[in-house]
Amino acid sequence: MTAASFRMDALASALADDMDVTVLTTRPPASARPFAEPGAVRVKRMPVLRDRSGAIRGYLQYLSFDVPLFLRLLAHRGDVIVAEAPPTTGLVSALAGALTRAPLVYYPGDVWSDAVASTNAPRLIVSAMRRVERFVLRRARCALAVSPEVGERLGALGGHPERVEEVGNGIDTSQFHPGVASVRVEKPYFVYTGTMSEWQQPDLFIRALARLEEEDVQIRFFGQGSSEKKLRELAEELAPGRVHFGGLISPSESASWIRGAVGALVSIVPGIGYDFARPTKTYAAAAVGTPVLFAGAPTGAEVVRAGGLGEATEFSVDEVTAAMHRLLVDARDGTTERERARRAEWARREVSLQTVGSRAADHVRRALRGSGDEHP
């Protein structure tokens, strides 16, 4: 599951307290391990085009989900539609909502047009994505933002900041907590979970690992993304046998791998338009008490520093190498375990996804109650 999946699961569970909830989503890739469906909601899965790694990445793949989704939304005729990114999914949801008179709540997590721009995509693609995103935001009765920075960008892009509601971001502390069992492996390891893309450039960690020649330590990657192939090639070149890729895993498996790690690796490339991001990886690590090694943009770094969650460095191989060494020392001398409960308590207090889901559900209910009004 991705960060977006966690958010939508928490929202659906909160809404199911007093509403009938149907989730329209994709069938998981064949390589994905099975995981439990949320029991309180109805889940309908659709086939979708995926690339060789199992990812849904690219406009044709998005359309393979969005076109059938449009027809299903017309047939289902829900009272309110909650759409997750990408903006193309928001677009078909907005059009279906206009035809069925169902209000739209857009829950993007990120500003997709900014993310596309940060990858040096062709100007035409960036412009088209921005127009789609702007249309969705203007049609939505409400947009839910995961942080003040994302909320500000969504409001500016859509031209209606009064329709943007900040609900925060977080992690499911019922699954991510210090009591989960650690994975048992022979060698110490750092763990990277989630998306591997141009705006994260996690090759930084492989380059740093290669400099730790005297340390018998590994990196475990879980997830997928556009950079995975290059990461595999770089790992084979610089650190053969020391970097492992585990693909998509369930939340419980992710928690266990993070629990047993020396540190959880998180990165955001600074200065490419994505500096506002606060990655959910940080919260997942904190919730199980594992220290974070964050490299890059200042917003994510400040979260780590303010919460005392681990190491925050510049986006630099030298600095990351030094931070990895410090975390290895902390693991050996017991500092990591002594600090585990404090970090986990911070996560329970500050970033519980159950609280975020309830907050988001309240805004969905308000959008539904206002559905008889003239569309703003």
Give a verbal description of the structure.
This protein is α/β, with parallel strands linked by helices and 376 residues long. 47% of the residues lie in helices and 14% in strands. A 6-stranded parallel β-sheet has the order 9-8-7-10-11-12, sandwiched between helices. Helix 3 links the parallel strand 3 (81-84) and strand 4 (104-107). The protein is globular and about 65 Å long.
SSE diagram, text form:
Layout: H1 3-15, E1 22-26, E2 42-46, H2 59-76, E3 81-84, H3 87-100, E4 104-107, H4 112-118, H5 123-139, E5 142-145, H6 148-158, E6 164-166, E7 189-193, H7 203-211, E8 218-222, H8 228-238, E9 243-245, H9 251-259, E10 263-268, H10 280-288, E11 292-296, H11 298-307, E12 310-313, H12 317-333, H13 335-350, H14 353-369
Helix pairs in contact: 1-14, 2-3, 3-5, 4-5, 5-6, 7-8, 7-12, 10-13
| Share of residues in helices | 40-55%
| Whole-number mean pLDDT | 90
Low-confidence stretches: 372-376
> How many helices does DSSP assign?
14
Radius of gyration: 21 Å
- Classify the beta-strand content into a percent band: 5-15%
What's the total count of β strands? 12
Sum up the overall morphology in one term. Answer: globular
> How would you sum up the major sheet?
6 strands, parallel
Class from secondary-structure proportions: alpha/beta
Pattern of helices and strands: HEEHEHEHHEHEEHEHEHEHEHEHHH
Determine the N-to-C terminus distance: 34 Å
Query: Strands of the largest sheet, in order across it?
Result: 9-8-7-10-11-12
